[in-house]
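Quick one - inputs below.
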Amino acid sequence: MTLPDLGPVWLTLQLAAVTTLVLMLIGTPIAWWLAFTANRFKPVVEALTALPLVLPPTVLGFYLLVIMSPRSPIGGAFLDVTGTTLTFSFVGLVIASVVYSLPFTVQPLQAAFEALGRGPLEAAATLRAGPFDRFRTVAAPMAARGFLTAGVLTFAHTVGEFGVVLMVGGNIPGKTKVISIAIYEHVETINYADAHSLSAMMLVFSFVVLVMVYTVNRRYPVGGS
Amino acid sequence: MSNPFHKVPETLSIDVTRSWPGFDLSVAAEVPLEGVTALFGPSGSGKSTLLRIIAGLDRQAQGRVCCGGETWQDGRHLRPAHLRGVGYVFQDARLFPHLTVAGNLAYAAHRARGLSGPTVAEVVAALDLAPLMTRRTAALSGGERQRVAICRALLTAPKVLLMDEPLAALDDARKAEILPYLERLTAVSRVPIVYVSHSVAEVARLAHRIVVLKAGRVALSGSAVDLLSDPEAVALIGRRDAGSILSARMVRQHEDGLSELVTEAGPLFLPRMEARPDDLVRLRIPAHDILLARVRPEGLSALNILAATVLVIKMTEGPGALVQLAIGSERVLARITRRSALALDLKPGVEVYAIIKSVAIARGDVGGATAPRVL
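Output:
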């Protein structure tokens, strides 16, 4: 058995890494707000962030395609500034993945912040720690497990996406052709050998990731004291 | 405002309201920033809420909070908790589980750099924390946890130390373990303390002033010595634990194992206590441990019999009566039955003898069960 073309593998890992990084930056404040707000619009925001869980990827992909198309204001502006279209580009894939994997970042973080509660943060405030200081030195280390779970799940989920990527990115080698699409293409062209090896990689990768998540959850149970 | 020639203690001045469905708090109080002020009241009286408002942790409260010339809150501005400089000891300690004991203390000390507060070495010595420094907080007992929490709060160099029932979550043995530290702290620390409690015994041991809260209002306030010997106040605070506070000075140790002390009420003989001559001791006489007699009793084993004058009699619910006595220049409270009060024909001005069955040195007295008997 020969090794299949590894281009889609590297592209997939790059996409997952960038998406995870972006989502950590965007998802953390959203999760923080959801965990601590008493705002009456909280259920609306919660539902919005959970939508990608229930929507068919094709529906999500279709709307993203519409928004990113050069004829839409956003897609048009991107074309004017960069000279390339947002659709069928790596940046477009990142945006689509961020939307698609949002709940996998926000939900574990929200649960971790809710488990943390206000208690330790109030204690830190009475020890002269300002809001960002409290987040950095109390909330983040105490919710470390939540960050790890969120990061791993986001990464793994991005690696596994198919429908949204196909709608938004198409199948351009080195640019938008990720593993799942490469597998689809191998099957379509009856190249079962390469489909097998890529699929096996995905299977092992996903299994290892989940074992890691559950091991970490077992070793550091909720609540330090 | 601050006149160098007349040092008037600065005050913590509070005038706030806070409401929820079914409960509203409305408190106006001036608390001198010195010594220990107890916020006393039953559960649900609003005392913990008031403490959270003072600390800036409850941001829904309306009104004013000023501390020593700084406005912490008024109608327009609310200074957030981390800029107020309060130390706060929570009922549940709230140590950081991801840090060791030393790490918890360093967290506070690091953020109070440049402020004039105690050093880590000083507080560690004062609360005997040296053996715990490398431990993780999850491995500490409840009492140890509170000692660390108190240390940590002191290291922030606070303008006022707020303590929210720091002993409530502990059993009696742990309370007895930590109370001497609290007493030492309140005796030597120059940091003013506001101490929330629903335990009369704790308040009697620690507080200089008492603010009694009832259903979100200030029901009474005044000096601890006055309130704890005032029948009207005691009816509100709780008759069962009533007891008067006396300041005593150690005179000498006798060879038969007794210690002789002198108070404004007269001399007292107690089982040997660890104190040197001229040491000042705070004593507590439980109201139910005073017997009254119209004539000086003879052939009685009691050592401490003092001449007294009845000042006030207050009949309480049930069979009891509270009698306020003047003994020397002190006010002391006795709890007897209503029947005895009638039988002895007690009225204001009547001369009686107070037979003191037990005196609690302000140590080992939480819950009132372990007062040494003096027979």
